[in-house]
């Protein structure tokens, strides 16, 4: 993945998170637009999750401005997106989450895979690393990406 493609990826990830976060702040309208019938009774946890989603969006924006300097944010975002997909899909399989939310979690899964591809191209010294050293990823993160023991 090229440096420019990485920037586009992270900026689009930021916008996705901001749109979803704002939608969750106004969840009755958001649920209605998505066709979700059952509304949660207590908005506190939805609003807290919306805040976290928007903060991660800011992190992806920062990564888009300088992907080489913000690899830690990219790794954290990749792990968070995998966790969100696992949680929503787990509840979906137990029929506790609507399919519309599972579809949004599917977008998170796609972003997690793309973040991993970006990090892998950076690690290997491929096209994504032209703005920094190929081994610039912190050692602790390198083991996550390459599946080697640290």
Structure, explained:
There is one protein chain. Helices cover 73% and strands 0% of the residues. It is mainly alpha-helical and 150 residues long. The protein has one domain (3-146). Helix 1 packs across helix 2, helix 1 packs antiparallel against helix 3 (44-65) and helix 1 (3-25) packs antiparallel against helix 5 (99-123). The chain starts with a helix and ends with a helix. The model is unreliable at 132-138 (pLDDT under 50).
- SSE order, one letter for each helix or strand: HHHHHH
Poorly predicted sequence stretches spanning 5 or more consecutive residues = 132-138
Shape designation? elongated
> What class would the helix/strand composition place it in?
mainly alpha
Strand content: under 5%
Largest sheet: none
Total domain units: 1
Mean pLDDT: 81
Query: Helical content, roughly?
Result: over 70%
N-to-C CA distance: 25 Å
Secondary structure: number of strands? 0
Cα-atom Rg, whole angstroms?
A: 17 Å
Count of DSSP H/I helices: 6
Key traits:
150 residues, mainly alpha, elongated
Short structural summary:
With 150 residues, the protein is an all-alpha fold. The chain contains six helices and no strands.
Secondary structure: elements and pairs:
Elements (H helix, E strand, L loop, with lengths): L2 H23 L1 H8 L9 H22 L5 H23 L5 H25 L15 H8 L4
């Amino acid at each position: 993945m090229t440096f420019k493609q990485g920037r586009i990826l992270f900026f689009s990830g930021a916008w996705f998170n901001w749109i979803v976060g704002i939608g969750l702040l106004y969840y009755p309208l958001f649920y209605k637009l998505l066709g979700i019938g059952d509304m949660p009774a207590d908005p506190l946890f939805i609003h807290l999750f919306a805040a976290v989603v928007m903060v991660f969006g800011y992190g992806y924006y920062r990564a888009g401005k300088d992907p080489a300097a913000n690899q830690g944010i990219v790794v954290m975002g990749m792990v968070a997106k995998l966790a969100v997909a696992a949680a929503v899909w787990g509840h979906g399989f137990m029929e506790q989450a609507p399919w519309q939310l599972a579809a949004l979690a599917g977008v998170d899964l796609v972003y997690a895979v793309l973040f991993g591809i970006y990090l892998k191209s950076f690690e290997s010294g491929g096209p994504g690393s032209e703005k920094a050293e190929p081994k610039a990823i912190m050692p602790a993160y390198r083991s996550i990406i390459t599946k080697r023991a640290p």
